Each structure stands twice: as C-alpha cells, then as structure tokens.
Amino acid sequence: MLLSILLISVLLSWLLTAVFRQYAIRHHVMDIPNARSSHSVPTPRGGGMAVVISFLIALTGFCGTVIGFSSIWLWITLALLLIAAVGFIDDHRSLSPRLRLSVQFLSAALVLLGMGNVPALSLAGWIFPPAWWIWGLLAIGLVWFINLYNFMDGIDGLASGEAIIVGIAISVLHWIEGDSSAVSYISLILSATCLGFFFWNRPPAKIFMGDGCSGFLGLAMGTMMLVDAMKDPERLWAWLILLGVFVVDATWTLLTRWKQGNRLSEAHRSHAYQQAALRWGHGKVTASVAGITLIWLMPMAWLVFSDRCYGIVALVIAYAPLCVMAKRLNAGRM
Question: Does the annotation list 150 as a binding residue?
C-alpha cells in the first residue's frame, strides 16, 4: 500500500507541476531576474503548489487506509492549507509582511492546538516539562521554519532537494531504530511529492517553487519534528541536525544582516548558498548540500536517535563546520 501511494505521489506531483508551469506561462506569473536574483532568465514560479496538492491528497489516502484519521492531522492539514494559500496569493500579488506574519502565527497556533500538547524539552539530560513558555517558544520556532525555508528557496533544486533528502533520512533513522510511526511514513510521502516536482525544478530549473510551497514545506517539517518529539524529546535535536545547512545558513545570514543594520525584509542574495552558487553553479551547490546532509548530518542525527549522544552536544558538533563555511562564504555580506 505504501509503495503504491509513493509512486502515485511522484507521478501526480510531476503531472501537476507541468500543469502549473503552463498556467504560470499563460498568466505571466514569472520570476523576472534583477540585481538580487540568482537566475538570469525569466522563469515561471508557483510550481510548488503541485507538491502541496499531491501531498495533501496522498496524506488523506494514507491516513484513511493505514493509520486512520485523527483530529491532530485534520488540524495540521488546515494549517498547511492556510499557509500554502496565502503563499500562493503572495506569488500573484505581493502581500504585506505584517499580514504574512499574522497568518504564519495563526498556522503555528493551529498546529499546536491540534496537537493538544507540546513536547518536553531535553537539554543534556535535563528535562523541562511542557509549560506556557515552551508553547510560545515552539510557536516562534514554527514561524521561523516557515520563513527559513522561504529564505533558502533561492537556487535551482535546493529547497525541493533538501525536502527529499531529509524526508528519506528521517524515515531511515526511524526504521533503523525499529520505529514505524506515522512520521516515518509521512516524511516519505513528502519526499515522494517533492521528487515529482524536482524533475522540473532541478538545475537548470524550468519552474520555481514559489512562496506557497516553501512556507508549506517549512511548516510541514517543523510540525513533523514536534510530533516526533512528543515520543522522544531528543528527536527535536535530531531534526534540527538534519536541517542544519538550512538552519545555519538562514540564521547566520539574518543575524549578520541585522548587525549591519540592513532591512531584514529587503530582498538580497547574500546567503552562503547563493554566494557558493555564484562561484560554482547551482547544480554543484544543490548536490553538495545533499551530500553534507547524508554524509555528515545524518550520522550525527543517528547518534541522537540511538541515544548515543545528547542532542544538544551532537548539534553543536554538527553545526560547527557549517558555521565555518557560512563565515568563509561571507553569508549576510555583499
């Protein structure tokens, strides 16, 4: 059953991306290059909505036939739909940052309310039970994930490729530990839908993802991370390790620009991955990020999953070389 759902997800996403590409061309929904762009030719955008539709269809089928429907997934689906819809509108007509941020916090609240509780926080053996400040911290964290993924969707195939790799990696880690929970299957479904889109988005991209999908992916991964952490608080650190390239690059760049007094809402191309793409090209950077995730970050995440290392310790070790790379690539400076 799962294999059939995965194959259908890939095919459906591939077909829908072709449909959205024709729609974008016909209605002039194009990303026009400018001084801050990482591409050089006008390219259709908004194709990532194929991922959104395919994933939600596959998720509905999976929940209905394998794990059964539950209120938590209904709330999560509503939050994902909301963030995707606002992003899709923003792709067509620019919305104010205040409105987008308000919707992002509303979506985060829907996820947390749907879960009914939040995971405890684990810090090198110290366990902080759920409290009001943890609810607030996790809401901010989900909003950061939404924006983080949007920030990192700036070169061909990077955002979709990251979703594919992380989804597969988290499933493998679950299976290594003998855990066949819903998160392990749902992350695979997300990877499958992104794979169908990646065919069109790989370098050189024939269509871009758009804000509707990038925010959707950020919220989806952040949500699965919290659901996973409900079972074992240490897994929150494992997810953060796997997403390390995105977390470090986006955070380092944002903090650097803030220190320099730049407007944080202003478009730019000073992320480490963008600087690297200018030197070596989109394809090499996208492939390198996948390699770093599989060869360096996944083993570090496994140490956490298997209780061989405290999550915070593994995260510091995993992030150290990523911070060095961000600094050497002048992330946040142009």
Answer: yes
Domain ranges of the chain: 2-239
pLDDT tens digits along 114-167: 888 888 899 888 888 888 889 999 999 999 999 999 999 989 999 999 999 999
**What is d(CA 260, CA 330) in angstroms, rounded to the nearest whole number?**
13
Contacts of residue 52, Cβ cutoff 8 Å, sequence gap at least 6: 80, 84, 212, 213, 216
Q: Which among 248, 244, 204 has a CA at the least distance from the CA of 221? A: 244
The size of the chain, in residues, is: 334
What's the one-letter identity of residue 199?
F
Q: What residues form DSSP beta bridges with 127?
A: 122
Task: Report cis status (omega within 30 of 0) of the bond before 119.
Answer: no
Tens of pLDDT along 241-273? 999 999 999 999 999 999 888 877 777 888 999
The reply to whether 330 sits in an annotated binding site is: no
Q: Which of 121, 116, 105 is nearest to 73 (CA)?
A: 116
Instruction: Work out whether the CA dihedral 168, 173, 175, 181 comes out positive or negative.
Output: negative
Q: How far apart are CA 294 and CA 34, in angstroms?
A: 34
Instruction: Residue 174: name the closest of 119, 122, 224, 111 by CA.
Output: 224
Tokens of 303: 């140490």
